[in-house]
Amino acid sequence: MHEIENISEISHELIYHRYILSRGQTQNLFKDISMPEYIALHRISNSVNGKTDGSGKVYLKEIAEELHLTVSKTSKLIGGLRDKGFVFWSHDGNGSEGTYITITESGLRLLEKQEGLLKEYYGKVIENFGQENMAKLLQLTVQLESVMYDELKNIGDDTDEI
């Protein structure tokens, strides 16, 4: 029985700290764009920069896969970015080949501004926490998230939320 109580305490602490990191204090770092919008915009930028064809575009399906979201949830997220003028969303031909996204100049400026804020904040955090500690923490976090994701798949929960 003691072991179960300990698991309950640990699970509560994990949930609490994930909440604090994703919804709590760090939300102050995102004023002009939400955290999910920033993540999507950053992924779009990385995907576009990684393309060798020079097209400057990335397909919606690719972004959905990178974000571990359904295409419909990704569409809603990208639609918000489009409505704010941060991305352009179009399709090839009649649309049967898929829709693609490109970043607007406004989106690039916002992304640069947001990355500057995050770099300044996390630079101070890493300085105080230690680069080696941060590297270990990130490595362990990736491992933990992988195990957690696998367990969620095993119980059939909807795991496609940012």
Task: Report on this structure.
The chain has 162 residues and is mainly α. Helices cover 67% and strands 7% of the residues. The chain has six helices and three strands. It has a three-stranded antiparallel β-sheet with strand order 1-3-2. Strand 2 (87-91) and strand 3 form a beta hairpin. Helix 2 crosses helix 4. The two termini are 34 Å apart. 14% of the residues are buried. The mean pLDDT is 83.
List keywords for this structure.
162 residues; 3-stranded antiparallel β-sheet; 3 strands; 7% strand; 67% helix; mainly alpha
Radius of gyration: 19 Å
Alpha-beta classification: mainly alpha
What is the first-to-last residue Cα distance?
Answer: 34 Å
Overall pLDDT metric? 83
Task: Give a short overview.
Helices cover 67% and strands 7% of the residues. The protein contains 6 helices and 3 strands; from the N terminus they run H-H-E-H-H-E-E-H-H.
What is the topological layout?
Elements lengths: L1 H21 L12 H16 L7 E2 H8 L3 H13 L3 E5 L7 E5 L1 H25 L1 H25 L7
Antiparallel strand pairs: 1-3, 2-3
